[in-house]
Amino acid sequence: MRILIATAGSRGDVAPYTGLGAELRRAGHDVALATTDTFAPLVRDAGLEFRRLPADPRAPGGVTAGRELMRAAAAFVMELGQGFADAVDEGTDLLLLSATTAPLGWHLTEATGTPSLGVYLQPTEPTGDFPPVVMGSRSMGRFGNRAAGRFALRMADRVYEEAVAKLRHRLQLPPASPSEIRRRQARANRPVLHGFSTALVPRPADWRSGMKVVGNWWPHHDAAEQLPVALEDFLRAGSRPVLIGFGSMASEDGARLSEIAVRALRGAGLRGILQAGGAGLAADGDDVLTIGEVPHALLFPRLAAVVHHAGAGTSAAALRAGVPAVTVPVAADQPFWAARLAALGAATAPIPFRSLTAERLADALHRVVRQQAYARAAMRAAHHMATEDGAGQALEAVRQLTGG
Fold this sequence. Notes:
By secondary structure, the protein is an alpha/beta fold.
C-alpha cells in the first residue's frame, strides 16, 4: 500500500512521523512523507520518500501575537495549500494527516476518494477536561473549557478559510467553509489517532468514539548510531549532567540564554550540556559542553535532568527516559505540556520564558536533581509509557481503514 504522511511546522512537528513512517515501511508499506525542505534529510535518513511542501513555517521576525500572528499563519497555510495537492499522486492509497495538514487533506479525500486518517500530536478536540492547548493550562471549568475549545477551532478555521477556498476551486469541488467540512468529519466519526501518552493526557470521556489516544510515535534513529565521541567522553568524565536546550525556539536570545544557563548550572553545582538549537546556545569549560542535534533516546537516559521548552516531543522523551525536567515554556502548546509534567510531579513548576533568570533556574535545578520525588514520578510515567505501542496501534488502524 502506498501511504503519504503530510505534516508541516517545526522539527517537533515532523520528527515523530519519521518513526511512524519507518514502522509502516517495515510492515511492508510504501511510505512517503510530505513536509517542508528543511526536513528532507530527516525524512530520507528514515528510509522514506520525501515529498516537498512549499511553505516556510518560520514566522517573520517580531511576529508574536494577535492579528500579525494570524496573518502570518494564514500566509503559511496558503502556501502550504498550494503545494499540498501536488504532493498527492494518483497512486496514493491512504493519507495520514497531522493537525496542521488535516484541514487541507480532507478536501483531497473528498475530491479523489483516497481515504485519510488523522494522526495528531496534540489534543485539538474540545473537551471539558482541559482548555485548548494553545490557550495555556488554566482550567475554566468543564463548560468553559468546551466553549473555549470550540472558539479555538473557529479561530483555526479562519486561518484556513482562503486556502481552503482556493484548494476546493482547484479540485473542482463546490464551495464549503473549513468549519462545515470539520463538522462533516465529526458527523461521519472519522478516525483520529493522537500520538501522545495517556500518562500525560488520559483520553477525555466526552470525545467522540473515533478519537483515540494511542501513545507516542518516536523519531527514527539508526539502531547503530552512537553519541559523538566528545559527548561520550564528557558523560563518562563525571556525575550525570543536565541538558539545557530550547529546540527551535528563542532564536534571537542565544547569548543571554547561554549566560543564564551557565550561571544556573554553576550556581546549582551541576555539570551541564547546552544543546545549540535555534537559539544557538554555546559555552566552554570543563563543566559545560555544547552539542548539536543528537537522538533523545540515546542521550536522555544518561542525564540527571532536562531543561527544555516543553514541546510535546521533548516532554515525552524526557518522561520516556525517566528523567525529571525543568520547563521554560515559550509559546503555543508549550505551557500546556509544561503544566502536565508538573501535575505528574515529574517537573518543577514551569518558569515562563520571559521570567527566566539564572537564580530561578538554579533554584529549580537544585530541587529537581536533589529531591528524588521528581525522578520517581518520571520513572513511574516511563513504566506506563513502556506499555503503550503507538506505532502498533497506528498499523492496526491502517488495516481496519483499508481492509489490508
